[in-house]
Specification:
The chain has about 325 residues and is an alpha+beta fold. The protein folds into two domains: about 30-60 and about 160-165 and about 170-320, Nuclear Transport Factor 2, Chain: A (Roll); about 85-135. About 40% of the residues lie in helices and about 20% in strands. It contains eight helices and six strands; from the N terminus they run αβαααααααβββββ. The chain has helices spanning about 1-20, 80-85, 85-105, 110-115, 120-150, 195-210, 215-220, 225-240, and strands spanning about 30-35, 245-265, 265-285, 290, 300-310, 315-320. Strands 1, 2, 3, 4, 5 and 6 form a six-stranded antiparallel β-sheet that branches. A hairpin with a 2-residue loop joins strand 2 (about 245-265) and strand 3 (about 265-285). Helix 3 crosses helix 4 (about 110-115). The longest helix has about 30 residues, at about 120-150.
């Protein structure tokens, strides 16, 4: 019985530690970084990654302009009471009271003042009625125009031809890699070409290699300061446990573009990637492997977002898990 208890304790400990060691690669196991104004939005689904987990930690201060369900934020109520929100009624009632008071001052009484102003008030009511009908007509016309302007739901998404050629659509391209470029998964707002895809694939290998060397200087040239900060924390955590992670022989197996857009002078591209690698975690003291197998390749699927100043090099700005 005592042996069984010890085995249960060890098994529970391994279940707790195993995910940490198995996801020890750069950014593995967590969603971190920033995607500009889309940080709090899920990336567009692709065939490589139909769904991605949200960003769990981010230093981005930008918030979406809409509520999560897509509904516009509710405008703040206007200050003041009913009269402040309805100035026309306020003026009408004020005029009636004013007419009554004037009648009283000239000896005709409150009612006489109102009777004398009856013709004027009747004119105001007619103007108000006509104005209300015009306002209602304008609102109905605007609603009808907006309904006609809404595009009909598309049965299939549009895909941009290789090289980012705008204006033409085609069926979803096969996901098998060809020519070292990622096939595209949706129509981007920013044209993404073959050179960009090669840059994303190269960054995948270079970042994992710099991570394996714990080379923060190299990582600074490949990722945003925010992501480098997260990498530094994870490397320090590994060192505190007396282990180091090595990710070698990285190979992109499949990938497609989720979305590409611009914000001011910055351009963003979110790419889903499935890649294989030799992923091992070793004890720093003697180099013994404590997780992984240096003879067996493992696979992972992640969604990486890159950003750049227009015309500059791409830098990793976020990693999301699937």
């Amino acid at each position: 019985m005592r042996t069984l208890r010890w085995l249960a304790v060890v098994a529970a400990a391994l279940m707790v530690v195993a995910p940490t060691l198995a996801d020890a690669r750069a950014g593995g196991g967590t969603g971190s970084g920033s995607r500009g104004s889309r940080t709090n939005q899920a990336p567009a689904p692709t065939q490589t990654a139909p769904q991605a987990k949200p960003v769990e930690r981010s230093k981005s201060a930008e918030q979406p302009a809409q509520k999560p369900g897509g509904a516009a934020a509710t405008p703040a109520p206007r200050a003041g009471g009913f009269m402040a929100r309805n100035p026309f009624l306020s003026g009408l009632i004020g005029g009636m009271l004013g007419a009554g008071l004037i009648g009283m001052l000239f000896g005709g009484g409150f009612g006489a003042g109102l009777a004398g102003a009856a013709g004027f008030i009747g004119l105001l009511l007619q103007v108000a009625l006509i104005g209300g009908l015009v306002y209602l007509g304008v609102r109905l016309f605007r609603g009808w125009s907006a309904a006609r302007a809404q595009p009909a739901p598309a049965g299939r998404p549009a895909y941009v031809l290789a090289g980012g050629m705008p204006g033409r659509t085609m069926d979803a391209p096969p996901l098998a890699r060809s020519g070292g470029a990622l096939p595209m998964g949706s129509a981007p707002q920013v044209a993404i070409g073959a050179d960009d895809y090669r840059a994303f694939e190269t960054a995948l290998a270079d970042i994992q290699a710099a991570w394996s060397r714990a080379d923060l200087a190299a990582l600074r040239g490949l990722a945003t300061p925010e992501m480098v900060g997260y990498f530094a924390e994870e490397l320090a955590s590994n060192a505190g446990r007396g282990v180091e992670n090595r990710v070698e022989a990285v190979k992109l197996e499949q990938g497609d573009l989720s979305e590409a857009w611009s914000e001011g002078n910055l351009e963003y591209a979110t790419v889903a990637m499935r890649f294989s690698m030799i992923d091992t975690t070793r004890r720093i003291a003697d180099g013994a492997i404590v997780a992984g197998n240096d003879k067996v390749r493992t696979e992972a699927t992640e969604v990486w977002t890159f950003l750049r100043n227009r015309g500059g090099p791409w830098l990793l700005s976020a990693i999301q898990q699937t």
